[in-house]
Amino acid sequence: MDKRNMIIKSVILSGGSGTRLWPASRESYPKQLLPLTGERSLLQETAVRLDDFVGAEVDPRPLIVTNEEYRFIIAEQLRQIGVSSPQIVLEPCGRNTAPALTLAALAAHGEGDPVLLVMPADHVIADPGAFQRAIAEGAELAAAGALVTFGIVPDRAETGYGYIRGGAILAEGSQGRVLAEFVEKPDRDTAQRYLESGEYFWNSGIFMMKASVWLRAIERFNPAMASACTTAYAGCTPDADFIRLAQGAFERCPSDSIDYAVMERLADAPELGQGVVVPMAAGWSDVGAWDALWAVSDKDSDGNAARGEVMFEGCRNTLVHSASRLVAAIGCEDMIVVETPDAVMVAHKDHTQDVKKVVARLKAEGRSLTQSHRKVYRPWGWYDSIDEGERFQVKRIVVNPGAKLSLQMHHHRAEHWIVVKGTAEVTNGERSFLLGENESTYIPLGHTHRLANPGKVPLEIIEVQSGSYLGEDDIVRFEDTYGRGCA
């Protein structure tokens, strides 16, 4: 196929919560939104993975499938790396990866039937060149009608991943193999046999196929899913920034993965397209736990990896992840230490999978530490709850240039605002006025009010709340730029 006529469109699946990387990852701010291996978040790294790709034309507008809660954070992170006009599909509820890909294929099919490169948002690729070489081969096969998955060439007998068995090589000079079967996570002895055979690959969760090819396959194998997704997509509500689905139709959609819904069943319907696995050796990791992050991180001569302000003394093979202060590790070996402003986790590397047990206990106790960080992101910027006590709370609030909070009031609290940096445009009852640095205002209980940033630099204020109830649900909105519920 003429590569000049091939268009590749990135489809990024960004719906997971990543609780095994707690306390850095929380339900409202999961691991794909965190900068775990560099300055950019895992989502941002995924979005630029085809930058400078020479194997075909790449659509500069990635298609992201996510949920309502992450929509503004994702849009802002993409804006930060220069991605303009992304297509962000919002699922009303989670239904696994097969419906997510079906929605993406419906969105892309009307744009010339591109080849879709389907990637989870939370993986690490240490060798971008090797990744792009594998993608170039997969793209040619997908453009010719194949349904392609990428199998990670294993370097150890891993029991934590599912495997793919590759069959015959497709053609001389090709790396692609016939997709023989998917197999579940093996025990240690079986994993060792897989490694020694050379026929098995780790299941990466990365796929390529034309949009039309996927739609035909899902209609054949799961017509109820195809119908629900088509109805939900056809009922999209107009929105300049997001693709909002018809909620009721999507809630009726069956839940299934790409593997189970289609890829494992291709042998039953060869007319739909050949299943192919392309080997990939690109330093891949799904960063499923803290020990996996240590494995892909840069290390010092003693095998220690650090993020943030960290000091090692007599340590070996240890990861320390510091978010807000100096962490000094002394005499640690094979340890994981994760510091955030509101929680610290310490574990031996052999027990990092048990983090999920801690998360489960916190949930059972009704603790909000699994849900959100002390620093909470909003479509207009963010706030950090820096202190609280009986009848008071202190927040540091940053409002992005040109952004504004909703026009709102509170039944149970009053607020003092002190401008630390920038210029604030304030609505306080019947008055509207500007505040500069070191100026303040008082918002009495029950007053309608709004905070906006009319300037070109971030606006930073300190807010002191006082009252009988200080929960975030004590907000009555009258007007909101971001479409959040109003009275």
UniProtKB/TrEMBL annotation:
Pfam families, sorted: ManC_GMP_beta-helix, MannoseP_isomer, NTP_transferase
Gene Ontology MF term list: GTP binding; mannose-1-phosphate guanylyltransferase (GTP) activity
EC number: 2.7.7.13
Domain of life: Bacteria
GO annotation, biological process: GDP-mannose biosynthetic process; polysaccharide biosynthetic process
Domain annotation MannoseP isomerase/GMP-like beta-helix: ranges: 316-362
Domain Nucleotidyl transferase: 9-301
Catalysed reactions, semicolon-separated: alpha-D-mannose 1-phosphate + GTP + H(+) = GDP-alpha-D-mannose + diphosphate
InterPro entries: GMPP_N, Man1P_GuaTrfase/Man6P_Isoase, Man6P_isomerase-2_C, ManC/GMP-like_b-helix, Mannose-6P_isomerase_type2, NTP_transferase_dom, Nucleotide-diphossugar_trans, RmlC-like_jellyroll
Gene3D superfamilies associated with the record: Jelly Rolls (2.60.120.10), Spore Coat Polysaccharide Biosynthesis Protein SpsA, Chain A (3.90.550.10)
SUPFAM superfamilies for the chain: Nucleotide-diphospho-sugar transferases, RmlC-like cupins
Span of domain Mannose-6-phosphate isomerase type II C-terminal: 366-480
Protein name (Swiss-Prot/TrEMBL): mannose-1-phosphate guanylyltransferase
Organism (species): Thauera terpenica 58Eu
